Amino acid sequence: MASAGVVTIRFILANTHAPRLIPIVVANLSSKSRDIRRACCEFLDQLLHTWTKSSLERHIPLLQEAINKGIADADSDARLSARK
């Protein structure tokens, strides 16, 4: 069930370039669950590689903070995704 949810979120992020989704993804980077933090870092990687710059411009400080949180994460896979 969880993998279906991750696939759904990836599909939504790939096809819906709504800047309102960025704070939602970033807010979950402070979750206690390492799986959620890892998935959020992967979602941020997808956002930064597929969305247009105009969709991301409003949230530059938030994205910078999210990348810094990801790089300093306790989970090695989350750090790897954040560095990408």
Strand segment count? 0
Query: Outline, from the CA principal axes?
Result: globular
Biggest pleated sheet = none
What portion of residues is helical? over 70%
CATH topology name: Leucine-rich Repeat Variant
CATH architecture: Alpha Horseshoe
Rg over C-alpha atoms, rounded to the nearest angstrom: 12 Å
Distance between the termini: 27 Å
SSE-based structural type: mainly alpha
Fraction of residues in β-strands:
under 5%
**CATH class call:** Mainly Alpha
How many H/I helices? 6
Instruction: Give the averaged pLDDT, no decimals.
Output: 89
Instruction: Give the tally of structural domains.
Output: 1
One letter per element, helices H and strands E, the order comes to HHHHHH
Query: What are the segments in which pLDDT stays under 50 over at least 5 consecutive residues?
Result: none
List descriptors:
84 residues; mainly alpha; Leucine-rich Repeat Variant; 6 helices; 74% helix
How would you describe this structure to a colleague?
The structure is a single chain. By secondary structure, the chain is mainly alpha-helical. The protein has a single domain (2-83), classed as Leucine-rich Repeat Variant (Alpha Horseshoe), CATH 1.25.10. Helices cover 74% and strands 0% of the residues. It has six helices and no strands.
Briefly say what this structure is.
This protein has 84 residues and is mainly α. The chain is built from six helices and no strands. Helix 3 (34-50) crosses helix 5 and helix 5 (60-71) crosses helix 6 (76-83).
